[in-house]
Queue: 4 jobs
Job 1
Amino acid sequence: MKTSEVFNDLINIVGKKNILTNDEDLTKYNNDWRGFYKNKSLCVLFPESANIIKKIVKYCYKKNIKIVPQGGNTSLTGSSVPSYNNKEIIINFSKLNKILEIDKNNLTLLVESGSVLSNIKEYLDKQNYYFPIDLSSSGSCMIGGNIATNAGGINALKYGSTKENIIGLEIVTGDGSIITSLSKMKKNNTGYDLKSIICNSEGTLGLITKVLLKIFPKPQNNFTFFAAYDDLQTCIKSFNQIRELYYDKLESAELIPNLSFEVCIKNNFLKKHFFEKKMPWYIIFRLNLYEDKNLFQDIFEKNFNKINKNISDILLPHSIDQEKKIWKFRDDLVEAYKMEGRIVTNDISIPLNRMDSFFKTAEKEIKKMSSKIKIHPFGHIGDGNIHYNMILQNNISHESYLKLRNKIYSFVNELVEEYGGSFSAEHGIGQIKKNSLLKFKSKNEIDIMKKLKKVFDPKNILNPGKIFDA
Ligand SMILES: Cc1cc2nc3c(=O)[nH]c(=O)nc-3n(C[C@H](O)[C@H](O)[C@H](O)COP(=O)(O)OP(=O)(O)OC[C@H]3O[C@@H](n4cnc5c(N)ncnc54)[C@H](O)[C@@H]3O)c2cc1C
């Protein structure tokens, strides 16, 4: 099969303006967000409708051409870029981006899968409705990518991950069949729940083309506060108290170590520390309010004696602007941390009651590997989902860095398993965690996943080399 022949056939399907074949143009789509993977694709296609996607897949099925589905390419596991060199085409969803229908009776929104998450949120905001999934990458990631990774983010504490916030899907499977399951009924127990299988399938079972989202009335207001703590145990105790007190209101609780301020200041994402006196741990809390904010402020102050015992310092933003600055600091953290160069990123979850012990044991062992490692754990403490990250010294060779990184990954994953947690809480498996999946999932679980893969994608053309080798 000649590449020029394939290009001509694909141009006939998508049109000349919707294909890139030049190496230089392809770089942006070939490389992952962290710069870990750099395999070349054959071309990138930008289809404008589900019907065109169906035609592309039917063609690839016939010719045995492998496909990488790609949204905003913000994956942190290498799932949105080629696994092999010059063997795959990328289907990028950015031109499938229409918001189709809001239904205020049934509280649903129908969108095309290439809609950028922040565009969906802004559209709803203007109409006084709310879609709760919120990530630091919201301005680039697309709803299809969010579903394919079952993205969690800062509001999963109250609303759950993406899976809990979708009602229906339309997909194209690996032989080019379209499956449309877009009933607006939330109660719909009619056979297997296909959307749950597609959630978190990382583009290996089907290409998502349309999505029916669950939407919510917009909270009247939000209330943010930033609390500082002497130690992690007290911090977790305080989180539990605050959750008990404000359970149905509590939308986010983000753990921040003091090192985060240093990293953001050093990399010019923040001018100065938010607190006068530095403490080892902080949590940024956000409550959704359905009542007047001033009224709630009084309630909060009256209730404060119930929670103040464990809190060492508290910042109540004095303006919307300061509130935005606090959340921008949280959003910038991933980007600022990436600028530190030699980094190790673990996306884990640990039962809250064992988190303090996990942190102590892990730190002790990691410092034995190299005393220069700075541990930088942050994230969604309410779900027990911590980005247990590290900054290594920059003056080590690339080989030493990779060796140390792999040693840390193995150690952390083993320990997480021992503590009854998950070695991939919200970012998925992609290319980077395939070995861990084989190690920690049972043979029966892997076998049934492989059988499912065959049913949805009989020729293994959809995102090969991701999750496991089929
Ligand atoms: C700064 C930053 C912060 C982040 N914060 C979070 C966070 O808090 N929580 C979290 O869960 N993740 C987070 N992520 C990871 C990432 O943003 C999410 O996983 C996001 O959901 C990926 O969306 P995307 O459109 O960029 O998908 P991509 O990265 O393009 O693709 C991700 C996966 O989805 C597949 N895919 C994409 N579109 C489709 C489609 N239409 N049909 C089928 N498969 C498809 C791809 O093949 C790939 O397997 C963050 C990433 C960055 C860079």
Job 2
Amino acid sequence: MNETKAATASTPGTHAHTGMTTRHDTWWLAPLLVATGFTLFIVYATFRAFENNYYEIGSIISPFYSPKIDLPGWPFSPAILILWMPAGFRATCYYYRKAYYRAYFLTPPACGVSVWGSKSYTGERAFPFVLQNLHRYFFYLAVLVLTILWYDVFKSMLEPSFHFDLVTLIMTVNCVLLSGYTFGCHAYRHLAGGGLNCFSTNESTKQRFKVWEFVTKLNEHHMAWAWFSLFSVGFTDFYIRQVCAGVFPNPVFF
Ligand code: FES
């Protein structure tokens, strides 16, 4: 590929046509898949958030509705009181930002491909994208929600007496994937290992190095964790919905 031409084509502020590039590979495939995946998930999650039905049976509760908040006088689905937290965490995620800036905003759609429109790039220093900096705070909320989802796993296992069924298995896998995504967060990696000049100063910094190493391992595959956990949380809700509606079975293993 002629890198000079490709760089010119993708320069913000120019009047290039969208998609102008000298690339000959299938550069459009990744943004297309991302846009399709996001759109399907958003449509499904919105439908489920407003459905306000088929989310709880016995000790099992859908991740879209957990924790269930009965706010007196709240006229809408209780899912809305919860979903803004994981939605905010994902929407401001460093990986997702790259993915949807390319897939939805086409700024640019891929490396070496011209941007959409001719406006100059303002980065994330002006409203509304300056709000992306809230990601580090959404991380704390995401950990809170994740803790509750793990609590739900144990609750579904222990009530009314100890057992293990298919829904509990699906919920467990979902929590593992969500944990891999959450604790591989770039903001958490900075929290674990940032602001230090040396990891071997004392026992505390040595422990932080171990945490940072673990977070780094997860972070190396952050994109995979992001997609698998997005799929799993949607699938977990879908399966629980079908069990609540009496459509799918929930076999007990032991
Ligand atoms: S950067 Fe992706 S979850 Fe924080």
Job 3
Amino acid sequence: MQPTWPAASDPTQADPSGYLSERTIAAPCTPPGGAIGVLRVSGSEALRIGAALTGRALKPEDDRKALFSRLRQDTGQVLDEAVVTPFFAPRSYTGEDSLEIAVHGSPRIMERVLDAVFALGARLALPGEFSFRAVKNGKMSLSQAEAVRELVAAENDFALELALEKLSGSQHRLVAGIRDNLMQLCVLSELGIDFADQDVDEVSLPRLKERLGSLKEMLTELVGSFDRGSRLAEGVPVTIFGLPNAGKSSFFNSLLGEDRSIVSHLAGTTRDVVRERLNLRSAGKTVTLRLSDTAGLRAGADRIEAIGMERTLKSAVESDLLVVVIDGAEPGWENLLPYLSRIDLKSKECLFVLSKSDLMTPAEHVRLSDEIRGRFGVEGHWISSVNHEGVARVADALASAAIRRIGRGREEVVLTRIEHVRAVEGAIRCLDRARDASDLVLFATDVRHGMGELGPLIGETLPDDILGKIFSDFCIGK
Ligand SMILES: Nc1nc2c(ncn2[C@@H]2O[C@H](COP(=O)(O)OP(=O)(O)OP(=O)(O)O)[C@@H](O)[C@H]2O)c(=O)[nH]1
Ligand SMILES: [Mg+2]
């Protein structure tokens, strides 16, 4: 939730140069409602503003010290008792002189202190402007700043771990390393051009081309990591699949713990894909699923239902996990198997859920369990959406399967942004052209373009307006 502070478009606060303005900025960086509220101030006026508010000069020996202070307005009226921490440039988050002011968390106090800071010359920060300045001042790389945003937005432990690693600079180090290697190739090819008549093997075209291979491999791996990256951050896609009336929507609702999909005894109740996100815990970790409840599959459906069924199959094909719900009382194998055969089950994790256990005798349970084992070589999971028996066990199995899908090596860099994937693909195309280049001049040009394509990942060649765009979807105060 964003605090309700004056909008950045407020004419008294707005600054036409936006992110490029060098004015001192201020914003709350904790949401309203906590016991303590923290305001951040950054820019050349920050220490003067701090001195005016606290009534004491802030000296270099106060750097990073928490100073208990009584904050006063220029009228002398006390605003609050607060802890003010000055940070002297460049040893601050933004690289500029900064203050962190911890006040009592009342929204009214926060607002009054912020108003006083504005009256002393600061303006409200734009979304992500503190991080923007940190990048501009070389305090962190662009991918680290993005990691800050991802850290705040992380919904599950895997996204959190990834963001923390990115924050430590892992992505930047990897991509900058590849870029440095390309740079070296450029330098060598320039040398090769200069020494063309002396036939130096080290800088000959074939030798330089040899060195492209491993760099291209690393870039290709990075592109391939995106699928997992988006699943880590946004959830693992799971499709609930089966014949009409099998109990798919009932199971979906039981998992979610809410009445999300319509359930009825009429076959063909669900007609479209119903999507919902669900966070599950397994082995002490939270993982996010993107669950889809789908239309049941049957022959002789009308036109609308047939469209729904196509969507079911598409969702199943695109999912990592397939939950096949089978009506325990009436499996209907002959109807189900043709649809299952249209999906490449080997490429997915597949769970068989046997529904309506409450309607069945123990002997019937055993018979159908044996049948599932015989047909698919796996154990079926019995559940009842009426008394919820077995649902928690399936949830656990789903979480473990999802975790298996997104598992990654320690510190393996995983791309999470589509624009980064596009940039790396662009670099790969340049390296392919370099591999086919007929002389060193063309080779050097293509390698140089490849380096340029990697710019957005390391934030070195981004024009300010693009940087501004990137930071505009941060929250205020970051
Ligand atoms: N006794 C019992 N009835 C169930 C159970 N699960 C579902 N039902 C009933 O079975 C009928 C069909 O349930 P749904 O969840 O709508 O089935 P569906 O697979 O979503 O059906 P479609 O949307 O038509 O494809 C409803 O009358 C449910 O109340 C269960 O575990 N036990
Ligand atoms: Mg349904």
Job 4
Amino acid sequence: MKSSRTLGYSLALAGWLAGSAGAAWAGPTLDAIRQRGTIKVGVGTSPGFFAPDSAGKWQGFFVDFGRALAVTVFNDPEKVSFTSSSPQQRLPALQSGEFDILLSGVTQTVTRAFKLGFHFGPVVFYDGQGLLVKKSLGVTKAADLDGATIGIQSGTTGELNIADFFRKSKKTFKPVVIEETKEFVNALESGRVDALTQDASDLGLRRIQLGKPDDYVLLPERLSKEPLAPAIRAGDDRWLEIVNWTVFATIQAEELGITQANVDEFLKSDDPGIKRFLGVDKSLGEALELDPKFAYNIIKAVGNYGEIFERNIGKKSKVGFERGYNQPWTQGGLLYSPPFR
Ligand SMILES: N[C@@H](CCC(=O)N[C@@H](CS)C(=O)NCC(=O)O)C(=O)O
């Protein structure tokens, strides 16, 4: 028999669950998005991550997560607009309401959370700070850059990381802090700086856009951890959870082997977990107050995480990135979705 104490707890828990089950989710961002009919996304300008194609349609790894969000909210991957903004401008622009979300390679940091008032969705790309140098310098590691002139993009985590690195290694460098991306890249090509420092992914994407990519080398060393995650203004739980579970849906789909091409086959699965995930069993989606098929719709429209990665930046794309940490935990990577139940 249950002790009266345990019974008391059980009753309190049941009451809490009952009380919260029908709780109306309020959210100023989501309300505004619904009223407007589109999601406003702030992005950067690196082809592979985010850039308009020749027809003016935005394409890229981060762009696809914006489309996935539009599917969750509107069941329409086109109900989203993308606007580029420099690393210096974009966090203030998010704070002032110009954007609903940044999908621009923002690093999740404690200062940005506590001091600047941002929340982060799941990490979509595990990165680290790199250095892009002219091959003719013969440099093989960061410490060889003692006394070098290094270009840094203003408003990025790179500013503090590079200063920390040289302080720690008791070497010196001359910083050249640049806001505009074009000028930042030109500084290396024109010889104004010996090296550029930025997220390694960004430098990899920039290198292939240079006139002579083979004249430059991305050093293998990483100076920091740069977990790149969707950023939103603090204070809107419903919007945050939509961002979280949209990204998780792409990660969970890859773990389960569900792709854009085979998702309809999976609708016939007898596995109760898959039935819930794809909304064949509607109970989960109804409890979440989302379209029970939201995960199915995302996979159908955009694909799973691996497909998003491969299409935009993977080995067979022009970019040619390795998956590295960015593969499912079941394959030795860091991508891990909490359970869909
Ligand atoms: N992750 C760093 C750097 C962010 C960053 O600069 N991201 C790149 C894209 S991954 C960027 O915006 N580059 C400039 C551009 O795209 O114009 C931060 O959060 O401060």
